[in-house]
Each structure stands twice: as structure tokens, then as C-alpha cells.
Design goal:
Elements: H1 5-8, E1 30-31, E2 36-37, H2 43-47, E3 52-56, H3 59-73, E4 95-98, E5 101-105, H4 110-127, E6 133-142, E7 150-158, E8 164-169, E9 172-177, H5 182-190, E10 200-207, H6 227-239, E11 242-246, H7 249-258, E12 262-272, H8 283-307
The chain binds uracil.
The site of uracil has 9 residues, from strand 6 and strand 11.
């Protein structure tokens, strides 16, 4: 038994519906990698007010984002409390909650973000959060763009050019289409300020399963192609509309779409891959680059909250 697209749209109150008939029949659901559970925690009390789920690679970046968004939306933690890593005892992901915003680290690569998406989507379901919007705030390699450019994904492809997430399930490959919410993508682009000292652009994102050979780098432990082969490949990608390469957009686009959740991926380019492979930009500059997707998402969240 599975839940159809039509049934998914059946919750006019905006609750997240699961395409899994088994969950309702379970006594409790342990969200193992988040160190949370529907039996052990009052998930409705803890998370019902969540409106934005922001994911990014590292615990540190997502903790910093939590403090940043707290300042931006003027949120005050309840008296006597401090910002806590809700998932600290999972020793896997970190999660911080700032009013309607959840800030969660997703680790590196498709398996890591895929597991987190399963559990976060279930968390939204159990907590009865309404119409949550998911963002990935990441870093990437750019194609033909200046380092520091912010790329909003309007499409995502895997390393073979498929616009879908291929997952082997019960011995067969299941393909789930990658789809971003077009309106959300447009709204984010419109929030780029002409005064920003960097470009913000839309483009297709290639999601690789590896940082080195999977992204056509010549500086991994292994490499069986030439610099010319690499450039021919990267230029071909660029001609087909690919603006950046990272490692999480495909499951992010596909699994949020499968759950009927609006989502967007916003990444800052650490380098222009047509000019090199190594990330040699100084740490302080990289730290400033990493704030750029956060600034754009904070603008969106502030605007949203002001109009509600
Ligand atoms: N992240 C990636 O996946 N690739 C890069 O080149 C930079 C950041």
C-alpha cells in the first residue's frame, strides 16, 4: 500500500503526511539518529511551531546559523535556558531550535542527508508542524562563476545526468524525481540585494557521490583522466546549464518533493572549478562566504514572519 500524490495533497491544514502506512501502526517511532522518539518525547510540544527546517553540512555552521537567525528574527530564548544541541546524544547530527526555525547539520553526502531527511520528515509528521519549508544552506564548487557567488538550485541532477534520486530498494533501483518549488526559488532570487558585494544566480546543481573523482578533480588519491578530459567534462556540464557541484541536492530535492514539502538549496561557490581543484581560499574568506546563503535565507524567514 502506498500513498498517492492526490492523497498527499489531502491535508489542507498543511500537516505533513507520510507515504508509509506502517508508521501509524507502530507503538512508537524512534528517530534514532536524532536522539528523539515519539514515545520518549512530546514531539508535538517540542516542535509543533516549526516553520523552517534549515540544514547544512557541519554542526558548527548550523550552531552559528542558529545564533545568527536568533538575532535576525529577534527571538529570545525562554528565561534561564541556553541554546542546546537537541540531538547531542545521537553523536551523529546536531539540531538547534530557535522559535520557528530548526537548524540541523546533515553531514556529507547523499546517504547522510538521506537518513536525516527520513527522520526530519517523520519529525515534522509526529509534531504536527504545518507547511514546514526546508532549506539546504551549503557550499559547492562553481562552474564559470566567481568564488563567493551564491547559487540557488532550480534543478538537480546526479553524476549521470539523471533528474532523479536513484535508490536501490529491495534489490531494484527506484527513481524519485528531483523537483524544487519554483515559486520559492523565484522568491529567494528576488531577495538578492543589488547592493550585495557578490552575485546570486539560479542554475542546475550537479550532485556528485564524491568530492574527488566524482566531481572530476585531478587531486584525489586516484585519477585516471587528464586535465584536458576534466575540463572538457566540466565545460560540457556548464554548457548544459550546470552552475555548481555539491553532494546533497539530489536527495534533498527528491525526498522533500516526495513528501510534498517545499524546499530550496542555496550554496556558495568556494572556487571556480574551471580554474582549479584545490580549495586554497583563506579560512577567514571562506567563513565569510559561508554566511551568504544564511543571509539570503534569513531575509526570506524575516519577510515571511513579518507578513504572518
Ligand atoms: N563542496 C563540494 O562538494 N565541492 C566543492 O568543490 C566545494 C564544496
Amino acid at each position: 500500500m502506498s500513498v498517492s500524490d492526490e492523497e498527499l495533497d489531502e491535508y489542507p491544514d498543511g500537516s505533513v503526511k507520510l507515504r508509509n502506512p506502517h508508521i501509524e501502526l507502530m507503538d512508537q517511532d524512534i528517530l534514532y539518529h536524532l536522539a528523539l522518539g515519539s514515545g520518549s518525547h512530546d514531539l508535538v510540544e517540542m516542535f509543533r511551531d516549526v516553520k523552517f527546517v534549515c540544514m547544512g553540512g557541519t554542526p558548527r555552521r548550523m550552531e552559528m546559523f542558529a545564533y545568527y537567525i536568533m538575532k535576525e528574527i529577534g527571538y529570545k530564548l525562554p528565561t534561564g535556558t541556553t541554546l542546546m544541541d537537541i540531538s547531542q546524544y545521537s553523536y551523529r547530527y546536531s539540531m538547534f531550535k530557535v522559535g520557528p526555525v530548526l537548524s540541523i547539520s546533515h553531514g556529507m553526502g547523499t546517504p547522510s542527508i538521506g537518513i536525516l531527511l527520513h527522520e526530519t520528515i517523520k519529525l515534522m509528521y509526529h509534531s504536527k508542524a504545518k507547511d514546514p519549508i526546508f532549506f539546504r544552506l551549503g557550499t559547492c564548487g562553481g562552474l564559470g562563476v566567481e568564488p563567493g557567488t551564491v547559487v540557488i538550485s532550480d534543478d538537480a541532477i546526479d553524476g549521470l545526468g539523471n533528474h532523479s534520486y536513484s535508490v536501490p530498494i529491495l534489490g531494484k533501483v527506484v527513481q524519485r524525481p528531483c523537483k524544487f518549488d519554483k515559486k520559492l526559488t523565484r522568491e529567494l532570487k528576488a531577495l538578492a540585494d543589488p547592493e550585495d558585494p557578490y552575485e546570486t544566480t539560479l542554475g542546475t546543481t550537479m550532485c556528485a557521490d564524491d568530492f574527488y573523482e566524482g566531481q572530476g578533480r585531478c587531486d584525489g588519491a586516484f585519477c585516471d583522466y587528464s586535465e584536458a578530459d576534466k575540463l572538457e567534462y566540466l565545460e560540457g556540464l556548464m554548457k548544459s546549464g550546470v552552475k555548481n557541484i555539491e553532494m546533497e541536492s539530489v536527495p534533498f530535492a527528491a525526498l522533500t518533493n516526495h513528501a510534498g514539502i517545499k524546499a530550496a538549496v542555496i550554496c556558495v561557490a568556494l572556487l571556480n572549478r574551471l580554474k582549479g581543484d584545490q580549495v586554497c581560499t583563506p579560512k577567514e574568506v571562506l567563513n565569510e562566504y559561508q554566511l551568504r546563503p544564511q543571509i539570503l535565507v534569513a531575509r526570506y524567514i524575516k519577510k515571511y514572519l513579518q507578513t504572518k
